[in-house]
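User: Let's play a game. I give you a shape written as tokens, and you guess the letters that built it. Ready? Here's round one.
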């Protein structure tokens, strides 16, 4: 798989918090938008190489309180920290994080999507046949609003077994509890999580717990605001799944596969959809099982951020094709091929090994000469 231009998140780019603040709809309503208004453009105070960060949302989404779009000044009961957007930020649940503008400076009601550089050239899924070179040569591809990401896609991951965890076959335990999380987009509830031990031929239904639902029963003030989830059916937070698997079943399997489905019957695909930025990638989550030294060793596909490791990295080192429909493994009847070396996008400077002292970091903490 060719490296994309995006960041390396791994399965670690999701979390849940409780925010306090007014609904954005109440603020916009006071502005009395004109009939031709269709979008709410947002601009942050963070100045980046291509200007201030900004993006937009559809006005009808903002005005729909079921979507929970708000202006937050607290997070988990405390005033926002600088990293989370102090003093005010937008929170757009169920959508890609780039729509939740931090350090919010202004809202603008418009008749067209934002023309901000970061709205156009980030948070997009370009068609899979568009290469990095094509995307650089033809800016019209980026300006097609159909490719902009808003609602998140259905996704899931396993937390246990952990990467490099070893299960001893001499242990008296007869079952192993696999656990993980799943989430959907646009407020759609995850209705099932399924596990396969035979490459997707058969599936087992996992148990699901919805921590978000506990807040729907809360009828009082919390963290400086009225908890208003009792009337809203939307599901914005991750849910937790678990399944007890007999150890002998794991012993005869090569991998644990996980997939989720939401209430609109959107289901994770078997294979990845490659795109220039690599965003919204949601194929089945696969943990490989390696039998060694009287135990079962588990390997996740990748590690979070830039941490090395994962079975995908091993497949790549051996010249395997991760897009061959067999997770880079060679199927029966397919001849062995020589490794194909492809040009990669390099996000780091070769040979740069500078050590930054705390004094140097502090010298770049002012508004005049910031690093972050």
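Assistant: Ready! My guess for every position:
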């Amino acid at each position: 798989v060719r490296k994309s231009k995006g960041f390396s998140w791994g399965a670690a780019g999701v979390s849940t918090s409780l925010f306090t603040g007014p609904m954005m709809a109440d603020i916009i309503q006071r502005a009395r938008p004109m009939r031709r208004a269709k979008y709410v453009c947002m601009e942050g105070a963070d100045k980046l190489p291509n200007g201030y960060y900004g993006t937009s949302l559809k006005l009808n989404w903002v005005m729909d309180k079921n979507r929970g779009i708000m202006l937050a000044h607290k997070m988990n009961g405390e005033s926002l920290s600088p990293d989370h957007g102090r003093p005010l930020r937008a929170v757009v649940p169920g959508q890609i994080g780039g729509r939740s503008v931090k350090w919010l400076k202004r809202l603008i009601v418009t008749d067209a999507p934002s023309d901000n550089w970061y709205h156009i050239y980030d948070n997009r899924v370009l068609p899979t046949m568009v290469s990095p070179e094509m995307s650089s040569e033809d800016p019209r591809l980026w300006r097609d609003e159909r490719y902009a990401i808003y609602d998140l896609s259905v996704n899931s991951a396993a937390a246990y077994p952990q990467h490099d965890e070893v299960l001893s076959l001499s242990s008296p335990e007869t079952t192993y509890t696999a656990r993980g999380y799943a989430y959907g987009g646009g407020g759609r509830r995850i209705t099932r999580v399924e596990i396969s031990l035979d490459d997707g031929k058969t599936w087992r239904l996992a148990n699901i717990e919805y921590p978000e639902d506990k807040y729907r029963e809360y009828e009082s003030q919390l963290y400086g605001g009225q908890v208003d989830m009792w009337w809203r059916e939307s599901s914005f937070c991750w849910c937790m799944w678990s399944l007890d698997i007999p150890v002998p079943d794991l012993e005869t399997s090569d991998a644990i596969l996980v997939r989720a489905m939401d209430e609109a019957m959107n289901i994770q695909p078997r294979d990845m959809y490659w795109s220039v930025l690599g965003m919204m990638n949601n194929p089945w989550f696969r943990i490989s099982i390696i039998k060694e030294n009287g135990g079962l060793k588990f390997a996740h596909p990748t590690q979070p951020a830039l941490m090395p490791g994962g079975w995908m990295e091993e497949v790549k080192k051996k010249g395997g094709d991760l897009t061959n429909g067999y997770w880079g493994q060679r199927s029966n009847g397919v001849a062995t091929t020589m490794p194909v070396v492809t040009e990669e996008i390099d996000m780091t400077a070769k040979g740069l090994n500078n050590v930054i002292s705390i004094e140097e970091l502090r010298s770049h903490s002012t508004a005049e000469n910031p690093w972050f």
